[in-house]
Amino acid sequence: MRGYTDHAVTVLSILATVLVVAPLVAIFAYLVFKGASSLNLAFFTQIPKPVGEAGGGMANAILGSALLLCVASLMGIPIGIGGGIFLAEYGRGTKLANGIRFTADVLNGVPSIVMGVAVYALIVQPKISWLPFTGHFSGFSGGVALGIMMIPTVCRTTEEMLLMVPHAVREAALGLGVPNWRSVLSITVKTASPGIITGCMLAFARVAGETAPLIFTALGNQFWSANLNQPIAALPLQIYVYALSPYDDWHRLAWAGSLVLIVLIVLAVSLVRYVTSRGVLKGAS
Amino acid sequence: MVLCALSIFGIVGLIAFELVLRSQLSWHQFGFKFFYQAFVDPDTHQPLFWDPVNARFSALPFIYGTLVSSFLALLMAVPLAVGLAIFLTEMCPGWLRSPLAFLTELLAAIPSVIYGLWAVFVLVPLLRTHVNPLLIAGLGWTGLFNDNNPTGLGFLSAGVILAIMILPIISSLTREVMTAVPHSQREAVLALGATRWEMIRMGVLRNARIGIVGSVILGLGRALGETMAVAMVIGATPEIHLSLLANGSSMATVIANEYAEAVGDMHLSALTEIGLALFVMTIVVNGLARLLIWMVTKGAPAQVN
Question: Considering the entire predicted model, what is its pTM?
């Protein structure tokens, strides 16, 4: 009897594994199958055609996403890395550091749609005459929303990577009479930099696919626009709009856009996995 | 560096402040009743919850939709995730472990809009043509599956796609907690003559149960705030139905659908108040989960293989 239960559980857990892997395989198969068949040069070079005309591409959305991610990275990466350095080097073990770590975790758990609402309330809704970008939908506000979402990921991975640097390295630097800030910047951070960079890439990949915070900040745009003060197109937004449209041609573009996004994200995640599994801090040991 | 770190405090504070400030209008108008009141449609005498034309709002159908779809997702995801974690930590041959873990990690990295796209074109038609008729025929008497919705959208579709989305989170955290259980526990139970399942049940699951509950709650936190995939398959109707096959709406999806085109300040304010409620809800849920996981993994080595 006990033996049968044991076998039954083994079979059940294998079944669970198969059930988990099946949708993943299905999603990837559909993406590759549907996406690859509609991916062509026009997708990367043309803007969307009006309804009813075949062809067209998502070049404006790719440009828009790139701009949004630039704004987000400029905002999220420095703050995130700075926060991570504080947590690992200066505030280790203090109450302040624990509070900040907890707040970063809270920020990580805030639903992306709420981030959109907050940025809308902060930048899009109020019209302040002496501040640029306020009072209307703009690419900038979308970038800010994505940037805030990058902070906790970058901050926590930076901290983890810095904590992996052996203590002897710091002591060696300090023993040579190097001031603490120099030791942090040119010894510890430098040693951990491959790990920190992969953390940034991970955060980048996460926000690259975010749609919810962009719906009422960046808003989307059917035309060429590189103006951050105006509504701007973004790849995930365009996928969302096209997926819910009734036109087959737009559905095809949505699949193609998804394939492009997923390739970007899989590349980033694989790189992260490769670097972390290889032992990030080879130079240190 | 201190400035960067403090700015994280500042950002969370600013988010909370803005949400509270912008939801004042609706808070003063409806008070706490906002979360449970219902109106009556004067023409049809049906209950009415969300009436932008007359600026009368109630969050009830959205709270209902969020809870129902999230619990459906947990119901489906938890057994699968725990099964996967057991397989990966206790049974899996070494060569398969790391590719499988990587696959589930990838599942976590797929953007929610792509899940939504897949759900709209693959999952929903599948449910509509094959699964829903079976459920109606077999379980229609319970009242949970008695509405043959021709679109295939609704709570059930939302629950299934949410389950697929929260699976990797729950299973990877469960795995972490289970590997943190010391090997001596397993060896002790095995030495008493237990089978592998008894060893897992008594030696591993019992020690890891608080952490597993924590990871399930963390998955719940993710499900509550999930927006795009749910918005694409739940049907976007502010109504309450017992039937899981009926159209509904959730807190996150109503914000996504209506915020950019809100009519009037009260509408905007009511939507912001829903956002605030969602914010508070996820903070509470995530805080609880972190606490539980921390209670289990503190002091234990992170990776024991």
Answer: 0.90
